[in-house]
């Protein structure tokens, strides 16, 4: 005789609250933001992001300590120059963490699983780009805030002027985060293997900076300072620095800066084009992966 048994466990419809698209988008954003810092993952995944964050904080803390002892305003690092000065650390953070956000689902072919639920392709992309941008803004903005707060505690002169400089620098941090994060995400999305993604992102930043530096050096030897300034548009860190200098009133941290207010407008338009173009490219990339 058969020992099989059929259990009638019934079926009950879900009668709870439907949380909707906003909740899905917020959940994806929080998940990716946590992943950018290795939260919710093994301990080894937290080492690199938190180590880089600590390195980013050290110059700010040292600068505030030096100012507190000497009371010399020149010992404080300029807010707007913090990101260009530590561009190598920021580039490493983008190179190591962008593949975590952009390519893991592609590498393990699980993108269709996301879209089997009510998750839009654009929502998926915006959550990832938003998380990467937020992580970069925290990486750059926190040390700048430490500089400003430390200066206030140690009684820096012209506190109202310093506030304006700080707010301008924070606006620059937002532009840095959007541009660098967008570039890193696009490059990583087309290199599913993480090691290749890290190398590709570093190569993009290094090659663009190296080529622009060579062009600017040649232009300077030929006293063609206009070409030297406009060439900076093609290196990400220099591009954002042009926005800071021409539109936010910061002091230059780069060799060449595009001339006049029109240089700042062109640089800002190029930054917006990079971000919008990156979102469009990522949309097509994930949409294609979701159909495969």
Automatic annotation (TrEMBL):
UniProtKB keywords: Membrane, Transmembrane, Transmembrane helix
Keyword Cell cycle on entry: no
Coiled-coil ranges from the UniProt annotation: none
TM regions (residue ranges): 47-69, 81-102, 122-151, 163-190, 196-218, 261-283
Domain of life: Bacteria
Record keyword Transmembrane present: yes
Name of protein: ABC transporter permease
């Amino acid at each position: 005789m058969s020992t099989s048994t059929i259990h009638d466990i019934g079926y009950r419809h879900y009668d709870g609250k439907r949380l909707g698209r906003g909740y899905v988008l917020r959940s994806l954003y929080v998940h990716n933001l946590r992943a950018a810092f290795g939260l919710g993952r093994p301990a080894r995944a937290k080492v690199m992001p938190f180590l880089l964050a600590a390195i980013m904080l050290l110059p700010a803390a040292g600068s505030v300590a030096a100012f507190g002892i000497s009371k010399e305003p020149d010992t404080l690092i300029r807010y707007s120059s913090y990101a260009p000065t530590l561009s190598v650390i920021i580039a490493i953070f983008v190179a190591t963490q962008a593949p975590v956000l952009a390519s893991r689902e592609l590498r393990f072919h699980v993108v269709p699983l996301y879209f089997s639920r009510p998750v839009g392709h654009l929502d998926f992309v915006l959550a990832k780009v938003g998380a990467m941008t937020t992580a970069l803004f925290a990486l750059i903005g926190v040390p700048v805030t430490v500089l400003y707060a430390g200066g206030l505690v140690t009684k820096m002169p012209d506190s109202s002027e310093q506030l304006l400089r700080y707010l301008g620098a924070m606006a620059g941090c937002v532009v840095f985060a959007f541009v660098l994060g967008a570039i890193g995400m696009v490059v990583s999305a087309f290199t599913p293997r993480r090691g290749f993604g890290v190398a590709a992102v570093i190569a993009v930043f290094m090659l663009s900076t190296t080529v622009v530096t060579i062009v600017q050096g040649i232009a300077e030897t030929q006293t063609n300072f206009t070409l030297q300034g406009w060439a900076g548009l093609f290196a990400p860190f220099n591009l954002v620095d042009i926005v800071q200098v021409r539109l936010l009133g910061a002091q230059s941290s780069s060799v060449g800066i595009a001339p006049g207010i029109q240089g700042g407008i062109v640089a800002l338009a190029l930054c917006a084009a990079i971000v919008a173009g990156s979102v469009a490219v990522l949309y097509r990339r994930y949409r294609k992966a979701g159909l495969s």
